[in-house]
Write a structure and sequence with these properties.
alpha/beta; Rossmann fold; two-stranded antiparallel sheet; 5 helices; 9 strands; globular; binds adenosine monophosphate
Length: 177
């Protein structure tokens, strides 16, 4: 049997693309990791390592790469999957939350009935940068009266200080730059 992948194995499969989608951004491309069955499964195992099936009611995933990991994590934990999407994409009534970007603002949305009050949530995204997106998603989760058990990220760009925005619950990341 092959050993389970380590965070170092996962890091080795992440490709850095300079100046994408804009000059000055070093984009972390996770597609080589997703294409590798062992690494993809291993990343889901690591993202969900703190929880047993049945102890999480919903995995909330953030648009769009967060969906890939959150949906697989939800299946593994036998939890529901709930999307936080960019404004204008969800068809039913939504709650919305603005957050700051380097220039301007962006808005994320969640269906008003996406989570029951008191439900236990694992929040997942592919990458934690400044923390604005995850903090806005957390506001939406908390607005519905749900409880965030943990926020888990595949990648953390620690030099951007995103953790400072996520102080109300434990934050975990597998690969830190
Ligand atoms: P932030 O709100 O600054 O924490 O940004 C996090 C969101 O932006 C995540 O949904 C990421 O997918 C995306 N993101 C930010 N920076 C990068 C990067 N360098 N490479 C890939 N995705 C990024």
């Amino acid at each position: 049997m092959t050993a389970s992948p380590t965070p170092a194995d996962i890091q080795n499969a992440i490709r850095s693309i300079p100046d994408f989608p804009k000059p000055g951004i070093l984009f972390k491309d996770i597609t080589p990791l997703l294409a590798d069955a062992r690494l993809f499964a291993g990343s889901i195992d690591l993202l969900t390592a703190n929880f047993k099936p049945g102890t999480v009611d919903a995995v909330v995933g953030i648009d769009a790469r967060g969906f890939i990991f959150a949906a697989a994590a939800a299946r593994k934990l036998r939890a529901g999957f709930v999307p936080v999407r960019k404004k204008g994409k969800l068809p039913f009534q939504t709650h919305e939350q603005d957050y700051a970007l380097e220039y301007g603002t962006a808005t994320v949305a969640m269906h008003v009935d996406a989570l029951k009050p008191g439900s236990r949530v694992l929040l997942i995204d592919d990458l934690l940068a400044t923390g604005g997106t995850a903090a806005a998603a957390a506001v939406l989760v908390q607005k519905l009266g749900a409880q965030i058990l943990e926020a888990s990220f595949l990648i953390e760009l620690s030099f951007l200080g995103g953790r400072q925005q996520l102080k109300q619950f434990p934050v975990r990341s597998l690969v830190v730059y």
